[in-house]
Fold:
Amino acid sequence: MTISVVDARTTPTLCCHQVMPPGSPAQLAISTTEAPLPVGTRILVASFGSSGLLHLVRPVVFRDLVPKWLGNPTPWIVGSGLAELICSVGLLTRRKWAPTATAVTLAIIWVGNGEMALRLHRDPRASKTWRTAAWVRLPLQLPLIYWAWTSPTRETVALSREV
Structure:
């Protein structure tokens, strides 16, 4: 076994583009680790990760959010929790499918939240606070959908580096 001492002053340094051709899997991996995720994507990763985990650990919290016409809420709660966890990991690792999957998941959740807002609006026993919170929640989801849709992927990071 040979150990060499390298002197940084005399050893030329190469950037990843000189060692690996642009677009190669190794070059893409280096590119994605260099650029930090946007704040909106980080918010989505954290919220989807924690919410997805909560879906699986305490499903009863989400029971009333599932529209009655969907039947048994348990498979919907578990399925949406798994979807949120998968989307969170996909966004974090900048998978090509993750922005679209996350935006679609949020759109489906938005419909469920709209259903809940209507249900609370019609329920005379529901407090004014809960009714207001349910309605305010709907427009607050729109930036989440935008952040999901515009989250970077390995491909978009690689393209932006080439330009």
